[in-house]
Design brief:
Elements (H helix, E strand, L loop, with lengths): L5 H11 L16 E4 L2 E5 L12 H14 L7 H4 L3 H14 L3 E5 L2 H12 L5 E5 L4 H8 L4 E5 L4 H9 L7 E6 L11 H10 L3 E5 L14 H4 L8 E5 L9 E5 L1 H10 L1 H4 L6 H16 L2 H20 L10 E7 L1 H13 L2 E2 L2 E2 L9 E6 L6 H17 L5
Parallel strand pairs: 2-11, 4-5, 4-6, 6-7, 7-8
Antiparallel strand pairs: 1-2, 3-9, 8-9, 10-13, 12-13
Helix pairs in contact: 2-12, 4-12, 5-6, 7-8, 13-15
Length: about 400
Amino acid sequence: MSGLDYLAEELEQLKREGRYRLPAVWESGSDVWMELDGRRVLQLSSNNYLGFANHPDLKRAAADAVYRYGAGSGSVRTIAGTLEIHDELERELAAFKGTEAALVFQSGFTTNLGVFSTLLQDGDVVISDELNHASIIDGIRLSKAARKIYRHKDMNALEDVLRASGQYRKRFIVTDGVFSMDGDIAPLPAIVELAERYDAIVCVDDAHASGVLGRNGKGSTDHFNLHGRVHIQIGTLSKAIGVVGGYAAGSQALKEVLIHKARPFLFSTSHPPSVAASCLEAIRVLRGSSELVERMWSHAHGFRKALIQAGFDTGASETPIIPIIIGDAAATMHFSSRLLEEGVFAQGIVFPTVAADKGRIRMIITAAHSQDDLDFALEALKKVGRETGLIS
């Protein structure tokens, strides 16, 4: 039987290009040190910025919610109704983000699919940074709006597109708050100023900015003090928040339109109550203290400085996302494999996630790492860097 036999050749091609790798299967829960094939390995690839995935308060909140509400929520919220824990999460999330309302989706990816496929209509134009996340790109593809791309963080290019887009009914500008592969921050104040000049709507995806930028991790809008000037804040509950899910924060009207029309919301069962409860607890921990956010930033600044002093190219990084740019896909994956042999898990990222000549080891430095952990990682990186000729 032939059928899908052609897929085997696709896999062989990935192997020839040095891009083939299946996900690691961990024998322990998400933490700084994890069990892999019977050995302890330092985790440097997790999005668990603040250590919330294993935070005792979040685990306790999840367990309590299971006993109070059960294991699952039962159905789609528009059919069976909303449990109070989901409603409470959205109210506190909106207050945290400084918006009138918020709506939680099953993931950050489905949030972008739902928001853009709902709001963008025939006769509109969406203007997107060229390095925006794949979920933004796919959400835009599901819409009937015209699409324009501007060079990464190039405000002159953005203004050129805006100036040439006066014929459209609505103009949407979409940007990541923090770009996930390079760790650089969007110039949100300049974007907002251009949007106000050309009567455009601003949407920022704070997947890697929520819990990272702003006071107590409130995100890029708070970081730049742009409250009331950013129309839609999208984010995830799966990274710094430590659990799973996504959200769109903005006006009450935005929330109610998405409830009525966003297909990922309309046709997906809501999160288990334990997920909503642990997300809610994460927001409360963040609102109560900035200690974890400050510790994460201190670790990130020190580690990036040490990498640069060692001779590594960390690209445009200015956040706890710190890449080491290598280039060739096979060389990148070999570097990652050697690090694992040294006890450090730092995933290689290659095409199509990044450009073919921009393969990199992408690391995320967290509040949960200790200085000893980071020293251990640095020595492993320098050893493999010298061995492979990446540094002298």
